[in-house]
Amino acid sequence: MDVLLSIKRSFSADYVEARDKFRADVTAAGATVKSFVNPNPGPRGEELATDTAWFGPRDARAVLVAISGTHGAEGFCGSGCQIDWLASGAAGSLPKGVAVLLVHAINPHGFAWIRRVTEEGCDLNRNYIDFSNALPQNPGYDELADAYVPAELSGPAFEAAEARIRDYREKHGAYAASVARSGGQYTHAGGLFYGGKGPTWARRTLEGIVGENHLADRRIVGVIDYHTGLGPFGYGELICDHTVGSINVRRAKEWWGESVTEPQLGTSASVPKHGLGEIGWERMLGDKVSFVAIEYGTYTPESGRIALRDDHWLHNRGPVDWDAPETRRIKAALRKQFYPDTDEWREMVLWRSRMVMRQGLEALARS
């Protein structure tokens, strides 16, 4: 499909529309949808689920996995890219011995409620740690926890909280401030980038999907996880946070080229973080997997901080009135931060997605 037509068709206004489009296009492409229903409803009482579809031979030696919605509201982008791929007809002409597994809305609660976090209040991309070991520490976050999510969004206490954040940045530098805020923390439930006390529903669901599709038995697996929010507007950075020097990261660079970045080496718009998906996939599949997050830039980190602050403040206060003006304001700001609703941005997103999907399939065909 022409990209200018696809930017009108592939993206959706909300989770329900995205799910309906995905399921319809999977069926039209000749596959079957398997759904994993989340135990919690959406803001209008609608059913929430992670939906999957398999294309290609069931005994494929190589599998490319494409995941949307790890960070909930970022699912607007990832779902659109998956639907664009389905509409392209590529599912009907896969390389010999290669299959594709689409995982739509792995965090359906965050997608529907326009949040980055799961129903447990967890950042899924900080949740893939081994909880049998000591939890990672983040003293910078501990110092600023009540400033990152203040009790009020105006008044003297709020202004004092904002001043503390500015002072920390001036004292320690931008890099340390970013690590403190977004590196992951495991002590402040209801806070930003909270990794949780155990595996979330979304993590358990993904692990179940990996198991029932026997991905550990394949010769090789590639994973593309769709994200938004960091970097230049519209650019899709390929971030690889596998263990530095591992075959996993070396192979990712062979497959996707020199644009692949590594936060642990300081080459990425992202800083090093705890509990990332790469480490979870390494734990499940060992050296058989190479994982990249495609991170599309949107607006500034500061506008992202404000959007996340306000959303956490809102949900920490108790049940949310979906139709209240304050709710609509906060949700609109967060949606825009992680899904710039412009044709310019969407066109950039689809061109890069098409490239990355094609590169992954070509690489798996050679492997």
Give an overview in words:
It is a single chain. With 367 residues, the chain is an alpha/beta fold. It has a single domain (3-131, 197-302, 336-366), classed as Aminopeptidase. 44% of the residues lie in helices and 15% in strands. It has 13 helices and eight strands. An eight-stranded mixed sheet has the order 1-2-4-3-5-8-6-7, sandwiched between helices. It starts with a helix and ends with a helix. The model has no long low-confidence stretch (mean pLDDT 97).
Instruction: Provide a count of the helices.
Output: 13
Percent of residues in helical segments? 40-55%
Number of domains: 1
State the total count of DSSP E strands.
8
Give the strand order, joined by hyphens, for the main sheet.
Answer: 1-2-4-3-5-8-6-7
What order do the helices and strands follow? Answer: HHEEEHEHHHHHEEHEHEHHH
CATH architecture: 3-Layer(aba) Sandwich
Taken as a percent bin, the fraction of beta residues is 5-15%
Distance between the termini: 28 Å
Largest β-sheet summary: 8 strands, mixed
Rg, Å, rounded: 20 Å
Low-confidence stretches: none
What spatial form do the alpha-carbon principal axes imply?
globular
Q: What's the level 1 CATH class?
A: Alpha Beta
The CATH topology annotation reads as: Aminopeptidase
Query: Which structural category do the helix and sheet elements fall into?
Result: alpha/beta
CATH superfamily: Zn peptidases
